[in-house]
Specification:
Number of domains: 1
Radius of gyration: 18 Å
Distance between the termini: 42 Å
Largest sheet: 15 strands, antiparallel
Protein name: ATP-dependent exonuclease
Keywords: Signal
Shape: globular
Number of helices: 4
Length: 274
């Protein structure tokens, strides 16, 4: 699991919402922006429980949304944290901190922070996005370096992608449809593909939930068992929150389940049996 704890969770979660990534939110007319209620809001907090090989508690991750401002413009400050617990923490201690700052109107990031310590593997980076020059400035505080990289005007970071894509329309997906996603991570633009598997009702700790199921295409060999080793279920409602993620790794498997939540912008539709 080295170097792939919270990153693994974030990558596959982000990919699950990417059906409409080619439709820029900035292309929506201003009147539509102001009238449309976002899929999330200030105060949303999600907690996920991670388990290894379906029985060993591996840790927890949380993602929280707060409001802020940048140069007078309304913005969101979103934080993602993960840490190992229990037996896993005894031989592989993890402490991850991801943060993104994104404009409220366009949902584009202007600042990204990544501070991680995963079994002694550490990173301390900050990325500043400049859309006037279409450049990303990567500041590596661990090695005291600063580099600049070309980006597109619609680029997202790994955490902002999740919230940008949660606001796209997933109503017209067809089973088997191939989906593409692009984002800036580790000083380069990363490309992802996944397939829509269809709709499914799954059992959670909260009850039965209508979901959309996806299978991302990942690189087999280093971490994952096969190209199609991941399955993701997201709520089929206006919130579009990830509910369950299963990954078959080279050694064992990793699973993330929604464990707690608060501050959702829309009703969380639970199916109650008669």
């Amino acid at each position: 699991m080295k170097k792939h704890f919270l990153i693994l969770f974030l990558f596959i979660t982000v990919a699950s919402f990417s059906q409409s990534v080619k439709t820029s939110f900035s292309a929506i007319a201003p009147s539509e922006k102001s009238e449309k209620k976002l899929a999330f809001q200030h105060g949303e907090w999600l907690k996920f429980r991670l388990s290894y090989s379906n029985f060993l508690n591996a840790g927890f991750s949380t993602i929280e949304v707060k409001e802020t401002k940048n140069e007078g413009l309304p913005a969101f400050h979103i934080t993602g944290n993960g840490k190992s617990t229990g037996l896993v923490s005894l031989f592989f201690k993890v402490k991850d901190d991801y943060q993104t700052y994104m404009y409220k109107e366009t949902l584009k990031p202007y600042r990204f922070i990544r501070k991680i310590d995963e079994g002694g593997y550490t990173k301390d980076q900050e990325i500043l996005f400049d859309y006037s020059t279409n450049e990303a400035t990567v500041k590596n505080y661990k090695h005291n370096t600063e580099t600049k990289h070309p980006i597109s005007s619609d680029i997202q970071d790994i955490l902002s992608s999740l919230y940008f894509l949660r606001n796209q329309n997933l109503n017209n997906l067809e089973v088997g449809q191939e989906i593409e996603l692009q984002m800036f991570f580790d000083q380069e633009i990363n490309n992802f593909k996944l397939h829509f598997l269809g709709k499914e009702v799954i059992k959670t700790k909260f009850g039965k939930i209508n979901t959309l199921a996806f299978r991302p295409m990942v690189q087999a060999g280093r971490v994952f068992k096969e190209q199609e080793s991941l399955t993701i279920w997201v709520s089929d409602d206006q919130n579009k929150i990830p509910l369950r993620i299963k990954a078959d790794l080279k050694v064992g498997s990793l699973r993330a389940d929604l464990d707690a939540f608060k501050g959702l912008a829309h009703p969380f539709n639970i199916i109650f049996d008669n």
